[in-house]
Design goal:
single chain; three-stranded antiparallel β-sheet
Length: 80
């Protein structure tokens, strides 16, 4: 899987935590128990780019999300 961007709809999130369990290096629960994304030492709703090594786990986390709160899109390529 090539480079991807991931975003969490924090309004839709049901805090099931499946994504945190599946890809803890990308997802975390914030102080309110809502899923967020790790970005530069902070938590955000995204979008963030994930490494190729994380892409498969992020894809699995999105499929496992009961609220369908995780959106994955192709990372923008820079022109050559």
């Amino acid at each position: 899987m090539a480079g991807i961007r991931v975003e969490v709809d924090r309004e839709v999130c049901q805090s099931s935590g499946y994504c945190v369990h599946t890809a803890p290096q990308v997802f975390a629960l914030d102080a309110e128990g809502i899923v967020a994304l790790h970005s530069g030492g902070e938590l955000t709703g995204g979008p963030i780019e994930v490494t190729a090594g994380q892409a498969e786990l992020v894809d699995r986390a999105a499929w496992d999300c009961p609220a369908a709160a995780i959106t994955i899109t192709a990372a923008e390529s820079s022109p050559s």
